[in-house]
Write a structure and sequence with these properties.
By secondary structure, this protein is an alpha+beta fold. The protein contains two helices and four strands, in the order E-E-H-E-E-H. Strands 2-1-3-4 form a four-stranded antiparallel sheet, covered by helices on one side. The longest helix has 8 residues. The radius of gyration is 14 Å and the shape is globular. The model has no long low-confidence stretch (mean pLDDT 77).
Length: 95
């Protein structure tokens, strides 16, 4: 996956392992500056973990995250300067 000026977020081969559990397995995607992006899926499916890595709350085991052309360091400052908001919305289905 390549980074361009049109991408606000580029995630490339992101993985996270917790002892024997592979929580995120080689995830890659890019989000353009003018688009909304969401992860959808059932509980426990690994949606929050990549978002927490983008927010720098968690560190990936491997892979890279590029935000506004900055790799990992300086990410939150870049978000603040650009007026971006990244977060997690928890929902409850069924029951």
């Amino acid at each position: 996956m390549t980074n361009s000026d049109k991408h606000a977020i580029v995630v490339d081969h992101l993985s996270e392992r917790h002892e024997d559990l592979l929580a995120v397995d080689d995830v890659s995607f890019a989000v353009h500056a003018d688009e909304a992006f969401a992860f959808l899926g059932p509980n426990g499916d690994g949606k929050s973990t990549p978002v927490e890595m983008i927010e720098t709350i968690r560190r990936p085991t491997s892979g890279t995250i590029t935000l506004l052309t900055l790799r990992s360091a300086g990410v939150l400052a870049a978000f603040a300067a650009a007026g971006f908001l990244v977060g997690t919305v928890l929902t409850r289905w069924g029951e």
